[in-house]
Amino acid sequence: MITRRNFMRQSLQAAVGTTLLTPAFNACTSEHIITGKVIGPNAALGHRLRDMKFESPTQSKSTDVLIVGGGVAALSAARVLKQNNVSFHLLELGTEAGGNSVAGKNHVTAYPWGAHYLPLPNHNDPELIAFLKEAGVIIGEANGLPVFQDYYLCFDPKERLYINNFWQDSLLPHEGISLAEREEIDRFTTLMHEYKIMKGRDGKDAFTIPIAMSSQDDVFLALDKISMHTFLIQHDFHSEALHWYVDYCCADDFGATSRDVSAWAGIHYFASRKGRAANASDDTLLTWPEGNNFLVKKLQAYCQDEIETNALVYGITIKDDGVEVLFFDAKENRTVSYHARQVILATPQYINNRIFPQGKTVSQSFQYAPWMIANITIGSSLSERKGEQIAWDNVIFGSQSLGYVNASHQYVGIATAEKVLTYYYPLTGSDTTSERRRAYERGYDDWKEIILKDLSKAHPNIAKEITNIDIWIWGHGMIRPAPGLIWGQEIREVAASVDQKIFKAHSDLSGISIFEEAFYQGHQAAKLCLKHRP
Amino acid sequence: MKNSGDKAGSFQWLLLISVFIVATCGLIYELVAGTLASYLLGDSVTQFSTIIGTYLFAMGIGSYLSRFLNNNLLTWFITIELLVGMVGGFSAGILFILFEQIVYFRVILYSLVMATGILVGLELPLLMRILKDRVEFGDLVSKIFTFDYIGALFASLLFPLILIPYFGLLRTSFFFGFLNVVVAWIVAYRLKKDIKHYSSLKWSAIICLLCLGMGFVLSDKLTEFSESLTYPDKIVYTKSSPYQRIVITKSAIDWRLFLNGNLQFSSADEYRYHEALIHPGMSVIKNPKNVLVLGGGDGMAVREILKYPSVDSILLVDLDEAVTKLFRSNTALMSLNSHALLSSKLKVVNQDAFVWIRQQHKKFDFIVMDFPDPSNYSLGKLYSTTFYHEVKKILNPNGQLVIQSTSPFVARKSFWIINETLQHIGFLTKPYHCFVPSFGEWGFVLATNSNETHDAKLPRNLKFVSRETLPQLFVFPPDMDRVESSYNTLNNQVLVNTFEKEWADYTR
Ligand SMILES: Cc1cc2nc3c(=O)[nH]c(=O)nc-3n(C[C@H](O)[C@H](O)[C@H](O)COP(=O)(O)OP(=O)(O)OC[C@H]3O[C@@H](n4cnc5c(N)ncnc54)[C@H](O)[C@@H]3O)c2cc1C
């Protein structure tokens, strides 16, 4: 009985034939409407920094410490200040705190507009472990390893890759890949594993998170001078599938291809994550429907009363008795002058160039990759190709996009057809300025077309299954660790505090943009600030 | 001279290509019928050999019959091509819809095979007679047969390697029917001056092409339509809820409930399943009062629970309102569960069990988990350490928990994974099993927090569980006995992966 029925179903549902004729057939049926728009961010307010036309302040306030910016780095600093009973105030340009880790929500689920996961944390940063315990992410210890809250560990199946007309499990290409290429891929993963356990002559891990705790051994620092692409060629890696995979990984964390990031950063992606859990395998990650906004909300809980949103800081000047900070209060449409004894500057350096010209400004070596994020609502059951079922991370081989994350994946109940897919599209061209212009110039319909064309490869009827697409453009999404950035002189000079009054905290000062680095930058700045209290 | 020679050459090529296509189509129909028969009726050796035999024999009849066709050979040939296209093209669809629908399925099957065979058998002899006066006969016969056999080889390779995996049976047969008709049309067009009724043939061809094209495009719809026809007995109720398709069938001896095509119970032997589900656990609890049933919206488990007078409240949590409503309102079905769902002791909550349980604090003496088998990742979550942790929190210290745990015979590893998962989070377990004829060997795991034991106090008038049979349920013969296994978590889903493999192996 079962044999027959299953057989019938499978043989009847074989998909290839459908795709030849269904589009034509569907064209005859009723027109399907997809709603949506470009949601954010509110570029207009930020762009006022270009012409700097602000009226003189009509009000003045003062505080002990002022935090400028409200991203992860800022909130991490706020947590430390709070725990040390320092009074402070925080100014954030957006309508809510979170920066690149904000999220949205609709009738189906919450979903991220930026960061969506945290790998199991390394044990080098006790502050991060402490915070994860406070946040209920780590709930105990067993066999000397942290026990994580089950609901936050990414459920199985974790990932799948659409390649050669088939959804394979794992993102490492193997389906329809030649033996020689697979051997090369194996050689690569073995090499990366060696780097993962390697230590420098100073006894430190060759690659770790926070980056600042990595070994200073010249052997490894030399890798920061060449590109990841050059590294691959030097090591005789030529497989097209492997190059795609490495490019995919570089785009994932840096928004760039292997040609535009240093080999040190590229290897860091594979070799720095050493976190372990008592109740999950090493490669498991932590994720939530709303992505890292979950962690943002937990951080915000420390400073609910101190956060002021819709506040654009446009001028910072060091004075004898502290710092003067001017900001535009968009809610009240007025400018305010803040006097603070110390300032934690948790904004990216391209912004600091404008709002704090007194400080050390950065050169062209600080490049930021633009990103387009789409949250796609699926209304009826998603058409699938052969192979694995939908996973948390779903990637299409050879695509310019990074594929999509199923925001409904961590839902514990019985899955229904409705879901939200968060689609990631980095603009990885070498020239970030023209890529940024292109990202802004494309209209909603252009983006929609790009998305539909890409996803239709793996989901033949998706255009009819989507009910809504909302889009977010990040002009300066992530710092790109180009060769020479992470271990160069400039980044150190920029990161230095000024006059013991201004302390800098932003993930771009680590040279890579990830939650752990933002978090680390934040509490380090706060601790320096505490040390130099007047 | 030269000109007409060229013409004859290209004409000959046209015919040879037609022979090639016609031969390919012919063999494809034969393979489709053989494959369908062996999957639907089982025993592939017998099916294939009888189908091939019948088919070849029918071709012989066709060849024989061809001599009785004398006038208008061309028109005959084209008409036959159109017929082959239609009969062959629709055969898979017809067979599929009729299977399990009618008693004389075999009669239909072999009639269709005969019809296709006869028509295909007519093709070549007719063609040769048409050609006899048109082209130099010379080596034509050998050429025709060469192309005929190449076509056969081509088809036999194409069928298993490309057509079945990528097209599926239905589309394959529609597609080749389409090709057949196209060939007929092209030949007719080339020779239209020799044909009396070209225009009527043309229109017939167009209509055939439209029908076959529609069939091809609508294959999926056909699947949906005929899916409900794949039940052995008469369907008395169907409904699609947001979560599943509910089907109830009735035969002379029983009622059956199917959810998404999977049998949930047969009224003839469900008492075995439900008595085994409830009584081994329930009977060893001292004065059970509060009972929780997760899943089990058909009310059969509740019926068994109500046999304990000490019970004063039962909570039934079932995702699908459509199921609980049905078993609370349909008279025939209510007599199956003895009106259990109308009991004043019962409260029904229609919510997702996992979502629901995360907000619970109230404790229960007995908890029943009667979920569908872990056949997909959503269901697999209900068999995870995380879910069992939540259940453990709301189980009284002396309470019992029972879980339907699939077949320890078919899915032996899966069964023991469930046991291991419960043990991993600190439950003491007692696995057991029973035989339910409509299901086969079925397994359950009883789990508790305490090793205190009580004598079983069974209700009277049970039909399956008794003082004598009860201890036997806990004995596992070697072929179902415990195997080393890992435990199932949300982030490894080993159970679903194992379960899928075991059932696939069993039903292959
Ligand atoms: C698309 C995308 C996906 C990502 N995915 C991941 C991921 O999965 N995992 C991960 O770990 N990381 C991810 N990241 C990296 C992410 O950037 C970091 O995790 C982290 O959120 C960075 O925090 P931050 O505080 O350093 O910077 P930001 O988030 O940039 O914070 C800076 C804040 O300053 C505010 N600001 C700027 N100018 C002014 C001004 N003039 N006045 C007042 N306020 C101002 C901004 O609004 C912003 O809130 C992703 C980034 C992007 C863009």
Automatic annotation (TrEMBL), chain A:
<dbReference type="InterPro" id="IPR050703">
    <property type="entry name" value="Flavin_MAO"/>
</dbReference>
<dbReference type="Pfam" id="PF13450">
    <property type="entry name" value="NAD_binding_8"/>
</dbReference>
<dbReference type="InterPro" id="IPR036188">
    <property type="entry name" value="FAD/NAD-bd_sf"/>
</dbReference>
<dbReference type="GO" id="GO:0016491">
    <property type="term" value="F:oxidoreductase activity"/>
</dbReference>
<protein>
    <submittedName>
        <fullName>FAD-dependent oxidoreductase</fullName>
    </submittedName>
</protein>
Automatic annotation (TrEMBL), chain B:
<feature type="binding site">
    <location>
        <begin position="352"/>
        <end position="353"/>
    </location>
    <ligand>
        <name>S-methyl-5'-thioadenosine</name>
    </ligand>
</feature>
<dbReference type="Pfam" id="PF01564">
    <property type="entry name" value="Spermine_synth"/>
</dbReference>
<keyword id="KW-0620">Polyamine biosynthesis</keyword>
<keyword id="KW-0472">Membrane</keyword>
<comment type="pathway">
    <text>Amine and polyamine biosynthesis; spermidine biosynthesis; spermidine from putrescine: step 1/1.</text>
</comment>
<feature type="binding site">
    <location>
        <position position="318"/>
    </location>
    <ligand>
        <name>S-methyl-5'-thioadenosine</name>
    </ligand>
</feature>
<dbReference type="InterPro" id="IPR030374">
    <property type="entry name" value="PABS"/>
</dbReference>
<keyword id="KW-1003">Cell membrane</keyword>
<keyword id="KW-0812">Transmembrane</keyword>
<dbReference type="GO" id="GO:0010487">
    <property type="term" value="F:thermospermine synthase activity"/>
</dbReference>
<dbReference type="GO" id="GO:0008295">
    <property type="term" value="P:spermidine biosynthetic process"/>
</dbReference>
<feature type="active site" description="Proton acceptor">
    <location>
        <position position="370"/>
    </location>
</feature>
<feature type="binding site">
    <location>
        <position position="274"/>
    </location>
    <ligand>
        <name>spermidine</name>
    </ligand>
</feature>
<comment type="similarity">
    <text>Belongs to the spermidine/spermine synthase family.</text>
</comment>
<feature type="binding site">
    <location>
        <position position="244"/>
    </location>
    <ligand>
        <name>S-methyl-5'-thioadenosine</name>
    </ligand>
</feature>
<dbReference type="InterPro" id="IPR029063">
    <property type="entry name" value="SAM-dependent_MTases_sf"/>
</dbReference>
<dbReference type="InterPro" id="IPR030373">
    <property type="entry name" value="PABS_CS"/>
</dbReference>
<keyword id="KW-1133">Transmembrane helix</keyword>
<comment type="function">
    <text>Catalyzes the irreversible transfer of a propylamine group from the amino donor S-adenosylmethioninamine (decarboxy-AdoMet) to putrescine (1,4-diaminobutane) to yield spermidine.</text>
</comment>
<dbReference type="GO" id="GO:0004766">
    <property type="term" value="F:spermidine synthase activity"/>
</dbReference>
<feature type="binding site">
    <location>
        <position position="298"/>
    </location>
    <ligand>
        <name>spermidine</name>
    </ligand>
</feature>
<keyword id="KW-0745">Spermidine biosynthesis</keyword>
